[in-house]
Amino acid sequence: MSLIVVTGGVRSGKSRFAEELAAESGRRVLYVATGQAWDDEMRARIELHKNRRPSEWGCVEVGGRLSDYVDVSAEYDVVLIDCLSTWVSNRLMNIAEEEWRSEKHTTALLQEAKAWLGQVQASSQTVIAVTSEVGLGGVAMNLLGRWFADVLGDVNQMSARQADVVYAVLSGIPWRIKG
């Protein structure tokens, strides 16, 4: 098992860098897409990512549980997950507003992340997980934004602790900060 976490701000170049890492491996790559086309702008972002990827890479879209890709990943050596922050966002957006910040939902999501990390650890694959860094900004102005930052912050910390290598990408420049 090898886990590489690539973090950075929105539009920092983290996805492109992670794609370069996967391509440079010269191995069979499965791209795990977590984005959902909620609107035209998101559809355009997804299309940009699709066009940038090598055609020989496999691709699976996960909208629910992060580990849903595991069953189809056996024939691949490298799994590129883009991205954990979109996965958390999608999960939170599917919870009714009156249940935001519920301990039940927070615990379930963090347990799911822990279970995924357990699967990564048991795997022989290299997993590259892209995520947005939420620890450098201010406190969000609304309840959902604060919940997102809290949950993603915990998921990022768990992932980085387990990772063999962590990169932070700033303005397109990767910094190796662990490993």
Salient structural properties:
seven-stranded mixed β-sheet; 179 residues; 22% strand; Rossmann fold; 5 helices
Describe the structure in brief.
With about 180 residues, the chain is α/β, with parallel strands linked by helices. The protein has five helices and seven strands, in the order βαβαββααβαββ.
Describe this structure in words.
The chain is an alpha/beta fold and 179 residues long. It has helices at 14-24, 40-52, 84-93, 103-122, 143-162, and strands spanning 2-8, 29-33, 58-61, 78-82, 126-132, 165-170, 173-178. The protein is built from 5 helices and 7 strands. The chain has a 7-stranded mixed sheet with strand order 3-2-4-5-1-6-7, with helices on both faces. A hairpin with a 2-residue loop joins strand 6 (165-170) and strand 7 (173-178). Helix 3 (84-93) packs antiparallel against helix 5 (143-162) and helix 4 packs parallel to helix 5 (143-162). The protein is globular. The mean pLDDT is 93.
